[in-house]
């Protein structure tokens, strides 16, 4: 093996490690943002006020499952 080949291999390995580290950091940040978004969405669902609708008693109580 030539010295220049060893140097090129070392440089390639270092660059690959750097690329992997950047990819992992980006993935972690993306997962963190998705987690915050999901938590925010779930929190907003639980905060919806239950406003009574002025519907007749026979509406909104049954689901037609044969349609």
Written account of the structure:
This protein has 67 residues and is mostly helical. The protein has a domain of 34 residues. 66% of the residues lie in helices and 0% in strands. The protein has 1 helix and no strands. The longest helix is centred in the middle third of the chain and has 44 residues. The chain is rod-shaped. The model has no long low-confidence stretch (mean pLDDT 85).
Task: Give the secondary structure arrangement, pairings included.
Blueprint: H1 3-46
Q: Strand-residue fraction?
A: under 5%
The shape, in one word, is rod-shaped
Spans of 5+ residues with little confidence (pLDDT < 50)? none
Category from helices, strands and their pairing: mainly alpha
Number of strands: 0
Biggest sheet record = none
Any idea what the radius of gyration is? 28 Å
Q: Give the number of helices.
A: 1
Residue share in helices? 55-70%
Order of helices and strands: H
- The CA-CA distance between the termini, in Å, is 74 Å
